[in-house]
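In this section we walk through a basic example: taking a raw amino acid sequence and producing a predicted 3D structure, encoded as discrete structure tokens. The instruction is simple. Fold the sequence below.
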Amino acid sequence: MRRLAFLIAGAGLALVIAAPAVVGNSDGVFRAATLESNQSLWGPTAGGEHHPSRQWWYFRYPSTPGPSMRRDLETAGVLRRLHH
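The resulting token sequence is shown next.
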């Protein structure tokens, strides 16, 4: 039992050490694949609850959204409609 506790403690320490690098990289990848919006993607009623510098992920959308998401973003006023 003592050995198991030691192994768990060691794994926990490894996760604490590795987590910032993994999360930091994930944030960078997400930012690189998205564009910034001037409004929360949750809509105007949630905008007061979301602050761009604290919950920045609510203010970003895919740089190449698929057709369904593009329509949603256009309807929400985040993207201008493309006219063909």
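Looking at the output, two observations stand out. Strands lie at 34-36, 60-62. The chain has a mean pLDDT of 80. In the next section we compare this with other chains.
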